[in-house]
Amino acid sequence: MSTSSSEQDLGPLIWVRGEIDLALVRAAEALGDGRHAAGAEALKFAQTHLHQARGALAIVGLDGLTHFCDALEQLFADWHAGKLSDTDNPAGPVAQRAISAVRSHLDELVAGGAAQPMRLMPLYRDIMAARGESVVAPSELFFPDLTLRPPPAPSAAAALSPLDRARALRSARSQFERGLLRFLRDDRD
């Protein structure tokens, strides 16, 4: 989604929001209670409607949410094809929660919240677990806003001596590594 440094451009999302909601509601309705055998037509209908919502999210530029929907769409495809390993697989409840989470995430965006698809990571892990994937990296839903630019470089008059520059770089690297380590050790996701 296009963003400035202060706020997101909600125009495109608001413009297609009705279509996304309708597709998600139809996907949830097709899924019903989630008790479907492999090959059930309801799974194909749910996948088709989710694919429509996913396409609109991709056009709007919500990459993290699009990737989340890709995983959910693949869950429907695997379920329909009979590739899910368990007969007691929790795919139905997980899929319903995922559809609901996408709608809630969109509600928050339209209300002025930030696009933070990493908050969907616990549910994303559930989707991947239902598909039989045991290793899921948090980076799979990490889509930072790359349109933000760093501040301009300091002028030549404010340039640091080589010794001061080396100290500043060591300090910055140390801060970065401590923050990254804290992030990687955080189990809350």
Task: Write a concise keyword list for the protein shown above.
189 residues, 0% strand, mainly alpha, single chain, 6 helices, disordered N terminus
Write up this protein.
With 189 residues, this protein is mainly α. The protein contains 6 helices and no strands.
Gist?
This protein is 60% helix and 0% strand.
Number of DSSP helical runs: 6
How many runs of DSSP E, i.e. beta strands? 0
Shape: elongated
State mean pLDDT (0 to 100 scale).
87
The SS-based structural class is mainly alpha
Percentage of β-strand residues:
under 5%
Topology as a string of helices (H) and strands (E) = HHHHHH
Strand count, sense and barrel status of the largest sheet are: none
Distance between the termini: 23 Å
Low-confidence stretches: 1-6
Helix content: 55-70%
Please tell me how large the radius of gyration is. 21 Å
List the helices and strands and how they pair.
Elements (H helix, E strand, L loop, with lengths): L10 H21 L9 H20 L2 H19 L9 H20 L10 H10 L31 H24 L4
Helix pairs in contact: 1-2, 1-4, 2-3, 3-4, 3-5, 4-5
